[in-house]
Design brief:
The protein is mainly β. The chain has one domain. The protein is built from two helices and eight strands. The strands form two sheets. The chain has a four-stranded antiparallel β-sheet with strand order 1-2-4-5, with no helix packed on it. It has a four-stranded antiparallel β-sheet with strand order 3-8-6-7.
């Protein structure tokens, strides 16, 4: 969906918490893509998810440089108004070098406080029970149009 060195414009919220994103101020960002992470091929670790469980996320996570300020930040483009996609998240098991889930453990969870808290509790409870040789990860399940 995005490629390295590509220049993109995102209408991005100043607050990306699922509780406040729809009421947030928005700014146009002019960015140059430095890195692209597909959460299906490179899913989140449980600790990455638990560090910020209420962050509005989508399938793609890009690291980009703002062409005006020179700052480097990470963005979930699906959160941007001009892309208008949001991803649901799901717990899955992955082979250590796998780029696709070996098995989904949960239903997809949406971008609401309640659903993210359930997903966080499940991730904490499943982690100690992960079968030997597999990795518990948080992955993107699908992309859906947002409704503002």
């Amino acid at each position: 969906m995005f490629s390295i060195s590509e220049r993109i414009e995102l209408d991005y919220p100043l607050d990306t918490n699922v509780l406040r994103v729809s009421a947030s101020e928005w700014r146009r960002r002019y960015l140059r893509v430095l890195r692209v992470r597909d959460l299906i091929k490179e899913p989140l670790t449980v600790s990455e998810f638990l560090d910020r469980p209420l962050l509005e996320r989508s399938r793609w996570l890009i690291t980009a440089k703002d062409v005006h300020t020179g700052t480097v930040r990470r963005y979930y483009p699906g959160t941007a108004r001009n892309i208008n996609l949001v991803g649901s998240l799901q717990l899955a098991l992955y082979e250590p070098d796998g780029t696709m889930p070996a098995k989904f453990l949960t239903k997809p969870f949406g971008a609401t406080y309640e659903e993210r808290m359930i997903l966080a509790r499940l991730a904490k409870s499943f982690e100690p029970q992960t079968p030997r040789g597999l990795l518990l990860r948080v992955t993107s399940h699908e992309l859906k149009l947002k409704r503002w």
